[in-house]
Design brief:
By secondary structure, this protein is α+β, with helices and mostly antiparallel strands. Helices cover 37% and strands 21% of the residues. The protein is built from seven helices and seven strands. It has helices at 3-20, 60-73, 90-93, 96-107, 118-121, 150-157, 162-170, and strands at 24-31, 37-43, 51-54, 79-82, 111-114, 132-137, 140-145. It has a three-stranded antiparallel β-sheet with strand order 1-2-3. Strands 4-5 form a two-stranded parallel ribbon. The chain has a two-stranded antiparallel sheet with strand order 6-7. It is globular and about 55 Å long. The N and C termini lie far apart (55 Å). The mean pLDDT is 92.
Amino acid sequence: MPKKTREPRLRRIGEALKVAVPQFGSLELKDDPEGRPHLEAAFEHWRANAARQREDQFSDGTLRLIGFLWSLTERGGPLLLEEPELSLNDAIVEKLPEMMRRAQSFSGRQVIATTHSYAILNAPGVGLGDVHRVSVGRDGSTILTAAEDDEVVAQVRKGSSIGDIVLPLSAPSEASRLAVLNVVSH
């Protein structure tokens, strides 16, 4: 990617990381002695000089957030995100749908995300038409939009949240048995 495109993008991602990651200072792309590029972040602390880390020292959440933010800035084609909430604080997770919506209006990309997150499903602006439940059966999978599910619509009208309704419906039917299985040998 040309530097004139990459640098502003990294700067915008760095600004978002300042909001989400404690003591985050800056994000840069630097070459190692062999010429391979690496992300490097500065973290402010009580010492005069910031602590510096390369991407192999970043937390899983920081790496996932960088990847999420980078992917939102791309144009063209659909964007498929599998559980973008992993390793992120719920206060950040509940902002992901709004960020996806803003990216769609910017890039025109269709964004599809899978999730098991109450924070995403209950985020402001997420409606019944945005949520599609995949049910796995013997004859394959079916997809039902929450807005087309009369039971879900009725419960939302009574004041229940989308996450409180949909997530239990998507749980494996035998999930309760996991706690009593003897998987540890004596």
